[in-house]
Automatic annotation (TrEMBL):
<dbReference type="GO" id="GO:0047936">
    <property type="term" value="F:glucose 1-dehydrogenase [NAD(P)+] activity"/>
</dbReference>
<comment type="similarity">
    <text>Belongs to the short-chain dehydrogenases/reductases (SDR) family.</text>
</comment>
<dbReference type="InterPro" id="IPR020904">
    <property type="entry name" value="Sc_DH/Rdtase_CS"/>
</dbReference>
<dbReference type="Pfam" id="PF13561">
    <property type="entry name" value="adh_short_C2"/>
</dbReference>
<keyword id="KW-0560">Oxidoreductase</keyword>
<protein>
    <submittedName>
        <fullName>Glucose 1-dehydrogenase</fullName>
        <ecNumber>1.1.1.47</ecNumber>
    </submittedName>
</protein>
<dbReference type="InterPro" id="IPR002347">
    <property type="entry name" value="SDR_fam"/>
</dbReference>
<dbReference type="InterPro" id="IPR036291">
    <property type="entry name" value="NAD(P)-bd_dom_sf"/>
</dbReference>
Length: 251
């Protein structure tokens, strides 16, 4: 059940917010009382998300940024602090899918592209988020890994490597900051109804449905619900966890 006051007075920062899981989570935070900063590559890509956040009754800050570029990330998080005064929750969701290929056929530039955005981008965001959370004495971070973070994916070595690494990064950061009132967890979505899934399957969504034991794709809002639980006091004793929300896909 939605609680319109659960995040009142809180500031939530969502990367990869232009569509899919990021958009659904930004809107969910807004619906439950948070002020929301949304980030993606361009401001134009964020226009629909920004409208949805405003319609949910929240103040929104729109940020254009390449998460693999440390100077851009530092500037973006600086704007969050300047605008809202704090950073209570960070959902590091920005990521891209790989071009399918067996390992020996992966172009080095393609490998670097996936790791730069998915892994380096998550690390760079965390680096600056954590610095602010230490200063203010509290915070919650949720990183988007994947079911591919706990199993192999034929033709998807670079993506799976990046998502496995995010889990290790999450667990290590959780230990680093456990005594500083900062929790760090990872969410592992399965096959979800998103533009990324459309691209990954070349529009043949049935292929993804067939992989799901529950017989359907997940909805972005179902991932958002889990992220909000992990970010709220209800998840207050949870840190260093990698929580699968995937309809049984990774079992």
């Amino acid at each position: 059940m939605t609680n319109p006051h659960r995040f009142s007075g809180k500031v939530a920062f969502v990367t990869g917010a232009a569509s899919g899981i990021g958009r659904a989570t930004a809107v969910a935070f807004a619906t439950e009382g948070a002020q929301v900063a949304i980030l993606d590559l361009t401001e134009n890509a964020l226009s629909e998300t920004a409208d949805a956040v405003r319609n949910a009754g929240a103040q929104v800050l729109v940020l254009a940024c390449d998460v693999s570029k440390p100077d851009q990330v530092e500037a973006a998080i600086g704007r969050v602090i300047e605008t809202f005064g704090s950073l209570d929750i960070a959902f590091n969701n920005a990521g891209v899918e790989n071009n399918a290929a067996p390992v020996a056929a992966i172009d080095l530039a393609e490998w670097d592209r996936i790791l730069d955005i998915n892994l380096r981008g998550t690390f760079v965001c965390m680096k600056h988020e954590l610095a602010q959370m230490v200063r203010q004495g509290s915070g919650v971070i949720v990183n988007t890994s994947s079911g591919a973070g706990v199993r192999g994916v034929a033709g998807g070595a670079s993506y799976a490597a990046s998502k496995h690494a995010i889990i290790g990064l999450t667990k290590s950061a959780a230990l680093d900051y456990a005594k500083q009132n900062i929790r760090v967890n990872a969410i592992l979505p399965g096959n979800i109804e998103t533009p990324m899934m459309d691209r990954f399957t070349n529009g043949d969504i049935q292929k993804a449905i067939d992989l799901e034991p529950v017989g359907r794709l997940g909805k972005p809002e179902e991932i958002a619900d889990a992220v909000l639980w992990m970010s709220a006091d209800l998840g207050g004793f949870v840190t260093g966890a990698a929580i699968s929300v995937d309809g049984g896909w990774s079992l």
